[in-house]
Design a protein that fits this description.
Layout (H helix, E strand, L loop, with lengths): L6 H12 L6 H4 L18 H13 L13 H8 L11 E6 L8 E6 L8 E7 L13 H11 L2 E5 L11 H15 L1 H4 L1 E11 L1 H16 L6 E5 L24 H12 L26 E6 L5 H13 L4 E6 L6 H4 L4 H20 L4
Parallel strand pairs: 3-4, 3-5, 5-6, 6-7, 7-8
Antiparallel strand pairs: 1-2, 2-4
Helix pairs in contact: 1-4, 6-8
């Protein structure tokens, strides 16, 4: 069923892939039973993920040849915003909160908020999208499942996107949301001493960046940072080359260069980048919040995520690292019912559950 797509269709698919929402679940479960080896030449792809990947690449023939650019950005963002509508419960509300001094107000969505005598744990979430796409509203539906699973309050941040807003705009927005959650925890029914931060892809990069800022400012304690295939190092795919089978699918080296260059305002892999913008370049990771890091072995981010976990461990930071054999970027979004996806999602949920029960309300 291969077909040559228009540039608009390429951009739309690319935007969806940027946040791991490449095809709807209903389509992901109706994939061909056998792998089309003309589409997927690598046997390194996990057997459970080959059919879903083949179906995607069959629908979007030539996807890996897409050129990431500002010209395609509006349609990339349209693709990234195509998500499932929220459920009626847990309830969610939209709030506009003050930004940091000199920054504009920030829109957030609060899920499962309620005033309770027994305060709930909380998660501050940052969406994916390569620093250039995605919306907080698009994360509400999957986060409702997380809120139900852990009976927690979740705040997801509609941070400003690059390249219109370069670093530190997004960090300022995310920190403003963290500070607001901490200061207004009781009103939201949240325990200010049990706040985890979480994100996937670029959202994971934002979470890692935020954990560093929170450590340095010393205002808000963070219980756990949950980094789902996080985007941590601008040098990956630019000044740091990788084997051709790493990052071949979904989020590519070219996409990575575009996303990072858009955020930093200088080419990805430059000798100098803005201080605090790239978690992998931070000199010290000591005293950071405990971390869960999960990534696939053929994800473009595999090496940088493994290296970051190693640095955390050597710095004495309690760290759990999960590397899924043969998994590409966003695999659990593309194939949510695959065994490896279920195991992956169960792992980070277990890390959250363990953290939430280990810290009594102060």
């Amino acid at each position: 069923m291969s077909a040559v797509l228009t540039r608009r269709q390429f951009a739309f698919a690319s935007g969806a892939a940027a946040i791991g929402l490449v095809i709807p679940t209903s389509e992901a479960t109706s994939c061909p039973a056998t792998l089309d080896r003309s589409i997927i030449p690598s046997d390194l792809v996990n057997p459970e993920l080959r059919a879903p990947l083949s179906a995607f690449l069959g629908r979007f023939a030539g996807f890996d040849e897409f050129t990431w650019s500002n010209k395609e950005l509006p349609t990339i963002r349209a693709g990234a915003s195509k998500t499932a509508p929220p459920l009626a419960t847990p309830t969610h509300i939209e709030r506009v909160i003050p930004g940091l001094k000199g920054s504009p107000p920030v829109r957030v969505y609060v899920i499962n908020a309620a005033g309770h005598k027994d305060l709930k744990p909380a998660i501050l979430h940052m969406h994916g999208g390569g620093y250039i796409a995605g919306t907080a509203a698009g994360s509400i539906r999957p986060l409702q499942d997380v809120a139900k699973e852990h009976d927690c309050v979740i705040v997801t941040v509609d941070y400003r996107l690059a390249p219109e807003a370069r670093f530190p705009a997004s960090l300022n927005d995310n920190y403003a949301a963290l500070r607001w959650l901490y200061d207004n925890a009781a009103e939201l029914g949240a325990d200010r001493h049990r706040i985890a931060i979480m994100g996937e892809s670029a959202g994971g990069g934002h979470a890692a960046e935020l954990a560093i800022a929170a450590r340095d400012r010393g205002e808000v304690p963070i219980l756990l940072q949950v980094l789902i295939y996080p985007m941590l190092d601008d040098r990956t795919g630019s000044s740091r080359k990788l084997p051709p089978y790493i990052g071949k699918y979904m989020w590519t080296a070219q996409a990575n260069r575009f996303g990072w260059s858009s955020l930093l305002g200088v080419p990805a892999g430059s000798a100098r980048v803005p201080a605090g913008a790239v978690p992998a370049r931070v000199k010290s990771v000591a005293r950071l919040a405990p971390a869960f890091i999960g990534v696939g072995s053929i994800d473009l981010f595999a090496e940088e995520d493994i290296e970051y976990a190693k640095r955390l461990i050597l710095a004495g930071v309690p760290t759990e690292l999960l590397v899924v054999p043969g998994a590409f970027h966003g695999f659990n979004g593309l194939a949510p019912h695959a065994g490896v996806s279920k195991e992956f999602d169960a792992a980070w949920n277990t890390a959250l559950r363990r953290a939430f029960v280990s810290k009594p309300t102060a």
